[in-house]
Amino acid sequence: MLTAVVVGSDRSSTGALRAALQDTGMFYSVREWDLLAESRPLPGEAIPDVVWLDLPRDPGIYFSFAARLRQLRPGVHIVACSATAEPSLLMQAMRNGVQEFIPKPLSAEMVREAMLRFADTKAGGAAEPEKVIVVMGSKGGVGTSTVAVNLGVQLAQITKKRVLLLDFGRPLGHVSLLLDLQPRFTLRDAVENLERLDQHFLSGLVTRHHTGLEILAGASHPEEWQKFSLEALGGVASVAQGGFDYVLVDAGVVDPSEWSPILHTARSILLVAEPTLLSLWTLERHLTTMETVGLGASAAHIVINRWRRNDDNALRNVEERLHRPITARLPNDYRQVSESVTQGMPLTGSSSNPLVVCYRQLASEMIKDPGESAESRQPVGSRFASVR
Predict the structure, then answer these.
(1) Closest by Cα among 301, 299, 304, 300 to 315
(2) pLDDT tens for each residue of 88-130
(3) Interior CA angle at 319 toward 378 and 135, to 5°?
(4) In sequence order, what DSSP letters do the residues of 278-329 get, joined into one string?
(5) Of 100, 155, 114, nearest in space to 133 by CA
(6) Cα 34 from Cα 32, distance rounded (Å)
(7) Strand, helix or coil at 364?
(8) What is the rounded distance in angstroms from the CA atom of residue 261 to the CA atom of residue 136?
(9) pTM of full prediction above 0.85
(10) Is 41 helix (H, G, I), strand (E, B) or coil?
(11) In a 3-state reduction of DSSP, which class is residue 93?
(12) In sequence order, what are the beta bridge partners of 304?
């Protein structure tokens, strides 16, 4: 589902428009912004998928706002409505990034038809592609950062495109250590400069690994998280989508209900777990929470890390109980992973290395159409028998 914002100063008008948008059933969040009361978006505030401008007689500030939104998030869908529809007004609106102009008076049916047109365009592939892949752990210690790093490396090498890994691990980020990097800038620099953060600025903060993966290093001191609001993290991720082809987020262990605004922007959410009682029990609770906040089953992918053949009976029971397949089983290879972490190198190897092949297959799954049914996907890793 999508997010929307209604921008205007007439409370009765914006309230009616907000209700009409909510009635379409397409949005899990519809908010109201008043540009005359405060500057929007606020530092770190995520830019919604759809913005409706309820234009006043003098719409200059609204058009400047639309142009700024288009710069911050090129794929935002902007609709304007006005009691006047003079050709000069229409031209000014389009030049500033407005994609659709609807004359007043509005009706609920007109709003619904406009959003159905947008949905058809989005389904046809003309809308901004979803780029965010969130990697989160069922609990601490399941190898979430290791999975995020090696998945990111495989994505960069397979696609030959720009892949950014955002280290949102709390309380400390470990991505740079896993890649033996010494970044000059970190997430703190991005958050402290949110008001002027754009694609060019963000590109100057990231560190490039020789594999092609780019990272924004995480917190180096636990107290930095006092400044890292969820809105700020969402703002960084939103800017990142404008300059990179894929944006991975190492989220560590988070509450899906609290992180719902970021999770709803993701094409895929990888839930990493170990084949242990505590990890699988927590995994089920996370999946239940995700369902309650409107995150569909197609977005969530279960990844079992440190898998052994003798875990399969228990994992089949998990699949039956959850009514969903396990997307990937990453073989347990303590020696190989331990050496990789110690040396600060991603996993490498030939086509005969089961663990590397599984990461490559998982990366290939993540770049498929996110709308493809889970049943039609080939589980990753189950065909390898050589595990330690």
Answers:
(1) 304
(2) 888 888 888 888 888 888 888 999 998 988 887 766 554 455 7
(3) 70
(4) HHHHHHHHHHHHHHHTT--TTTEEEEEEEE-GGGHHHHHHHHHHHTS-EEEE
(5) 155
(6) 7
(7) helix
(8) 15
(9) no
(10) coil
(11) helix
(12) 273, 329
